[in-house]
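Section handout 9: paired folding examples.
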Amino acid sequence: SLSKRIEGHGRVLAVVQASRPLGPVRQQVADLNRGLAMTIPIALVIAALCGAALIGGAMRPLRKLADAAQHLDPDLSGSRLPAEGSDEFAELARTFNAAFDRTAAAFAQLERFTGDAGHELRTPIAAIKSNSSYLLHLGGLPPESREAVTSIDRSVDRMARLVDDLLLLARHDAGVLEPVWEPVQIEPLLQEVIERNEGPEIELCIESGRTFRGDPDAVRRVATNLISNAARYARSEVQVGVRLEGDLLCLSVADDGKGIAPEHLARLGERFYRVDEARARDSGGFGLGLAIVKELCAAHGGALQFESRPGSGTTAVATMRVRMEDLKP
């Protein structure tokens, strides 16, 4: 309804009211509510689709960067992230590429330094070794002097092994560690390695004595590092097993030592990593033996795995690809 006052002489003389039914107004409001109820969900769906399209277009360069990053070479020597355009993503890619270039250059410089230092150290090491060996073979050397020279001789041997290990790792990092395919007789090779180890009894079990083609130096080095490591920590015995699975040589070395805690298993094979720092230092380890085994296995299409539980010993399994063609049993 609508009300209107009529005033005169300073007072309200009358009030006029006009009324109208509200039914049509309520109907219009109801129609408006129904219309909104139908159009708002459609508008929200359209807005969501448009937003997804806009966000997808905006994030497409970032997805390209992520895909390219997953295919980068581990040593950062290959391709780089795409840096097309002048937007923020392209600028970010160029920044990352510059950082990758500096990192790759640092890696290359470190590899050259390791190789050059190793080669330069071989000459003085050989000279010290020859002189220490000469002094040990002299007669009449005082006991205190012989003890000192013996210590020098042993330290030189350790230094020579360290230099050889570093050179081998440098060759692997440089990508020049290629397999050599020569006939390998596994049983005499392992017997030779076992005879060089002192300590617990070493039992050899060979399921197949076939001759195969492989890298005898790599196989010998893998066996030497695994067997010597197992013998160092075994309580009473070490079991060495060999089997051929197609073109895969499997060498397993198990000891009955105190085992390795689970948190250390994942890091075995890292360079300079030692489970027990004090024990490894006393026994003369550098933390490179298992790293070398891991790299040699990888270079020959295989892998290095460990199984261990505290108190029940450790088993290391090294696999390497070999060739069986043109060889007789």
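Moving on to protein 2 of 2.
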Amino acid sequence: MLALIALWYAVISVFTAWAFAFDKEQARQRGRRVPESTLHLLTLAGGAAGALIAMEVYRHKIRHLSFWV
């Protein structure tokens, strides 16, 4: 059971980091963005590690207090 939980956190963190990276690229290209509520939901679903890493690597959403809280 513990391995399954660890796998979930790993998968959701990678997917969350990808979502942040995708949103950043869409912002640069002025394309269709990922809603902030979706990014928050992914983070709350276990992707906090991926979100924090992506925020630092891509310098994305770092000014939004709601993403740090």
